[in-house]
Amino acid sequence: MRVGSCTLRPVYPPDAKAAHVEGTVVLHAIIAKDGTVKNLEVISGPPVLTDAAMDAVKQWKYTPTLLSGEPVEMSTQVTLSFSLAGGSQDEAAAPRTSTTRELPPIRIAGNVTQAKLLHRVDAVYPPIAKAANVQGTVVLRAIIAKDGTVKQLELISGPPMLTDAAMDAVRQWTYQPTRLYGEPVEVETTVSITFTLD
To answer: By residue range, what is the domain housing residue 92?
Structure first.
């Protein structure tokens, strides 16, 4: 991920200039699929400089990040350094900027992660559900760890009598690790387990 052509310099706040305040503002940004800055939070920095930094970065445009050809949201850290030395007091600050990838779980469709499944354990049909002629599909939200194991599972929908069996099976699944920029990343996806009585 890189900043595109639209990179505005923050304006050095007059109050900060008058007080000779210098320093570094560190921001946490969520970059939307289209490369715009979707959300911005201050991590650290002199309070008198933070608004100017945020006002500028909110207008930045990044090159969209693609995963398997599809645009994805990214989390990143932006560092802006304000210095009064060597420049006109009337010019906009010329901060040094850098981004550090902080990769959150990447959302991937279930059919895509299904193709990466290396080890699958079939769900055991609960005898009590069979006896009650309960059928249906259990839909789970899964977080796949960097090593391909199932790190977290949450129920989205499904018959209560079938959910435990579905979750017990999926917890044992193993996926091929997903990489972004050559680094393994966590993946968020959905898993559907269908129970039918023959």
So the answer is: 14-102
